[in-house]
Amino acid sequence: MPRATQTDLAVLAALSVAPMTGYAVRDAIRTHLGSFWNESFGQIYPALARLRTEGLVEVDAGERTGSSVHRLTAAGRARLVELMREPAVMTPPRNGMLLRLFFGDVIGAEACRALVGEAREQAVAQLAALAAARRETEAEPAELPQRAYWLMTISAGEHTARASIAWADETLAALTALTAP
């Protein structure tokens, strides 16, 4: 699935929850999917324009520029189902910290310790954010059809954050051993 199609999937899926502005689509993706998915305004607005041209999204012009509310059409919901049924594309991650660590001999163990320590702090913060998301989601009515799926996704994020923390602890110990006399 090409990148544009994945963006379409993210935008259509966000709009399946509720009609919203382009800004609200970006905010919803960042807030609810941010631990595993990201879309920029530079991806969202062209996607919305393309989806509108294809008849998959309708737009109600807002009172001010940029406040147009987008909603799925029946064709848009059908396209969302098609995209959801396609095999998932696993894109290679781009992790600047791991790139630097791989070539850590250039900057030394102490600088790498700082990088890994910062990554650990980010994972701890992510775990805390996921705990808040879990509490909010668990407070949703049990009969809400999305609730179980949201909790499964939150669980994946929690497991990933815990694994990142464990890896960081192990790596910090290894880096300390490199600098020991």
Automatic annotation (TrEMBL):
Residues 11-80 form the Transcription regulator PadR N-terminal domain. Coiled coil: none annotated. InterPro entries: Tscrpt_reg_PadR_C, Tscrpt_reg_PadR_N, WH-like_DNA-bd_sf, WH_DNA-bd_sf. It holds the Pfam family Vir_act_alpha_C. Residues 94-175 form the Transcription regulator PadR C-terminal domain. It comes from Protaetiibacter larvae. This is PadR family transcriptional regulator.
